[in-house]
Amino acid sequence: MADAFDLVVIGAGPGGYECAIKAAQLGLSVAVVEKRDRLGGTCLNIGCIPSKALLHASELFHEAGHSFEGMGIDVGKPKLNLKQMLAFKDEAVDGNTKGVEFLFKKNKIEWVKGEGVIEAPGKVKAGNRTLETKNIVIATGSDVAQLPGIEIDEKTIVSSTGAIALEKVPGKLLVIGGGVIGLELGSVWGRLGAEVTVVEFLDNILPGTDGEVVKNFTRILKKQGFALKLGTKVTKVEKQKSGLKVSVEPSKGGDAETLDADVVLVSIGRVAYTAGLGLDKLGVKTDKRGRVEIDAGYKTNVDGIYAIGDCVAGPMLAHKAMEEGVALAEQLAGHYGAVNYDVIPGVVYTSPEVASVGKTEEQLKEAGIDYNAGKFPFTANGRAKANKTTEGFVKILADKKTDRVLGVHIVGVNAGEMIAEAAIAMEFSSSSEDIARICFAHPTMSEAVKEAALAVTGLPIHM
Fold first, then answer.
1. Taking a C-beta distance cutoff of 8 angstroms, is the pair 96, 52 a contact?
2. Which of 144, 394, 402, 433 is the least buried, fewest Cβ under 10 Å from its Cβ?
3. Average pLDDT of the chain?
């Protein structure tokens, strides 16, 4: 049985499903091949959405146990019902995945269940069906990066998948990798009572993040009880009756030591997932990291085959994949579509959050760009003082000659929401003066963004 479509998308994660929806809205006939039982890919099923549900629930649990009394709310010591918290997480997943399924039906997108194989340009096989199409989009996402010699069983040695489904709070959680996922999931279990140790190969957490932000956030994590072993590598994890023995040593050489753990979370990054697509047979080029090579229009070296999201170069972020999917759909439908890669925000959903968009100070120095920096701490923000959420700051980096905003970095409560203000400003090529002249509502945490913009010229009001 052959079916003909204008577009076949392989993978129903954020990039794939947004590409499909936009293409359908623009008049193309679309099918999406997805091997999972539910739409939404890693993000909605085992990544962004469930982890954020657990972060939210665990933050409220921690706040109830540590902050309520000081605000005059006497509820006693909160009791953890982990089974219900996990059910709360599953409900979030169910609602979001069913939402995508509804959008597919609304936009007349056919969901072909099965594993997609590209047999030839214009031909995709999924199960017992062969789909013929003018265009194929590879949106297969990424998978957990493995650490050689350490086997993930998703019970005591887990990836992020197992870490959102632990049946009990581990006494000691050892996180391998000080990146976003490790710190977020470490925060979840730390708030629920686990003793968290993070082992990071590099000399700092959050590689690629602005140095001043990292320094400040490292201090905050230590204050929260995180044990950070930086410049350290894990060489072995041994299972024993009493738990796990983790062998570590300095990354640059030195004496080894053994750490005890009940659960080890392997969180050293993700790798492009393109297995089983038949790319080698087709001659589709991939780079040394296994990512599909594309041109500026997301086209591979084979006509009619495109790729977006985590399986191509660039930050592995759901919203980056979404923007690429929409831009590509617009192009395929004969419209203009593009992504501004200089204005893609990134957020660490810990408490407080860390959010950035644009260049770091280190990147500007390396590029030889002269800049001015304006910083404003939340300790001087009225709303933050009232709410006792004064950790962190806002920093704005602007070109020294033109005053155009080149980067914004925030550590603070709701930083992930505030960074959108900065992204909008940067998308419209705003100067720091433009931001400084905007009337912000008072009292809000966002006023720190205005004050940081004022500080670029050295004239903040409340400092």
1. no
2. 402
3. 97
Extract the tokens encoding 42: 């890693």
Contacts of the segment 237-244: beta carbons below 8 A, 24+ positions apart: 237/150, 237/157, 237/264, 239/156, 239/157, 243/156, 243/172, 244/156, 244/157, 244/174
Average pLDDT over residues 74-81: 95
CB of 212 closer than 8 Å to CB of 232: no
Question: What is the C-alpha to C-alpha distance for residues 381 and 387, in angstroms, rounded to an integer?
Answer: 10
Report, as an integer, the average pLDDT of 54-78. Answer: 96
Q: Which helix or strand (DSSP H or E) is residue 177 part of? A: none
Phi/psi of residue 393, nearest 5 degrees: -165, 170
Is there a contact between 380 and 451 (Cβ–Cβ < 8 Å)? yes
Residue 308 is predicted with a pLDDT of: 98
- Per DSSP, the residues of 220-239 read HHHHTT-EEEESEEEEEEEE
Digit-coded pLDDT (tens) for 430-463:
999 999 999 999 999 999 999 999 999 999 999 9
Phi, psi of 59 (to 5 degrees): -65, -40
The predicted model scores a pTM of 0.95
What letter would DSSP give residue 311?
G
**Residue whose tokens read 């993040």:** 209
pLDDT at 326: 98
Q: Which pLDDT score is estimated for 2?
A: 56
Largest Cα separation within the chain, whole Å, is 71
Please, are residues 38 and 45 in contact by the beta-carbon 8 Å criterion? yes
In the predicted model, is pLDDT for residue 230 greater than 80? yes
Tell me whether residue 409 is one of the annotated catalytic residues.
no
What is residue 194's DSSP assignment? -
Average pLDDT over residues 370-376: 98
Q: What percent of the chain has pLDDT over 70?
A: 100
C-alpha–C-alpha distance, residues 273 and 311, integer Å: 6
Question: Alpha-carbon Rg of the chain, whole angstroms?
Answer: 24
Q: Looking at residue 80, what is its pLDDT?
A: 98
State the residue for tokens 């979001």.
Answer: 96
- Inter-CA distances, 230 with 159, 203, 211, 264, 266, Å: 20, 5, 15, 17, 16
Q: What is the dihedral of CA 130, 133, 137, 143, to 10 degrees?
A: 0
- What is the pLDDT averaged over residues 376-402? 98
Question: What is the C-alpha to C-alpha distance for residues 94 and 100, in angstroms, rounded to an integer?
Answer: 10
**Chain centre to alpha carbon of residue 36:** 21
Q: If you search the block for the tokens 């080894």, which residue do you land on?
A: 256
Catalytic, out of 66, 319, 335, 442: 442
- Contact between 199 and 229 under an 8 Å Cβ cutoff? The reply is yes
Q: Is the pLDDT of residue 1 over 90?
A: no
Q: Are 187 and 179 in contact (CB under 8 A)?
A: no
